[in-house]
Every structure is written in structure tokens, then in C-alpha cells.
Amino acid sequence: MNAARMILSLSFAATLLAGNPLRTDAAVVVIAQSGTNFVPSVVSVSVGDSIRWNWGGGGHTVTSGDDCEPDGLFDADLSSSTPSFTWVVPASAAGTTVGYFCMPHCLSLMTGRIDVAPAPPVGDVNGDGIVNGQDLTMLLSAWGSSGGPADINADGIVSGLDLAIVLSSWTA
Hints:
The protein is of the alpha+beta class and about 170 residues long. The chain is built from 3 helices and 9 strands; from the N terminus they run αβββββββββαα. The chain has 2 domains: about 5-20 and about 120-170, Dockerin domain (Type 1 dockerin domain); about 30-115, Immunoglobulin-like (Sandwich). Helix 2 runs antiparallel to helix 3 (about 160-170). The longest helix is centred in the first third of the chain and has 16 residues, at about 5-20.
């Protein structure tokens, strides 16, 4: 394969992968229902994290929306028949605040808030929020190794595909 064709192939692969970064460090955040409260009522998460609400008694819902108005993002019973509900934070929620409430108890202020962090730039190997020479250096130092933060596309090896992602995401 000539150099021009290889660069085009790597660029195309980076474009495809940049839209679907894979997280391997997703967290599970647990929220308890206690009486007419969600505990904690405010959580901070990242795209790909899971939030699990656990039932503590009575009949409740976990419904997304603000001011007691559902927005359709999620809506689930929280009761003895469904003692937990899990929602995985989608990429579309990055950088937003997601309100939620219990339908029967919203007017009693049984509400909560999920603050979703902005998505980090794809190719940010060192996690500093920008893609630059430091990320390139880390990637090249890890060349050929398996896994780790330099394996941006999570295919098991640091290779030209990861390099293409860094180069196509360059910010500084």
C-alpha cells in the first residue's frame, strides 16, 4: 500500500472511530429511594456510566424531566415488583443536566438531578482535555503494546488506527 493510500485509510478509520469512542472505565452510581427522597439527589457522571436507583419502600417512579413534566428520556416504576432501575448515560447527554422525579411525589419535591460531564476529546490520551504533542508522545511510547489509554479504539493494540485518531482530533 502506498503512503497516500495508507494515510487516506487511516484518516477514514479515525473518522469512523471518533464518533464512537469506547470507554472501559465506566462507573455505576447508586441512588437510593428513601421515603420521598432520592439519596443522593444530585450526582455527577460521564457518558457511559450507569445510574442505578434502588427501591426502599412504597410506590415510586424514576421519570426524567423537569418541573414534574416527563421528557421521555426514561420512565420506570420503582416498587417491590421492580426494586431497581438502571439507566446508562448516552452520548447525547454529554454536557447536559438531566432532571428526574417521582411521578406520585413530585409535588412533594421528590426530585433529583444528573450532571453529565462534557465528553472528552477523542484522542486525549493523557486526559488533560486537549489533543496535542503530549498525547502523540504517549501514544508513540506505547506503540505495539496491548490496551491502556493509548489504545484509543480499544482493539487491543496501539497501532496506526490509534495514531490516526490522535492526528484527526488534534486541538493544540
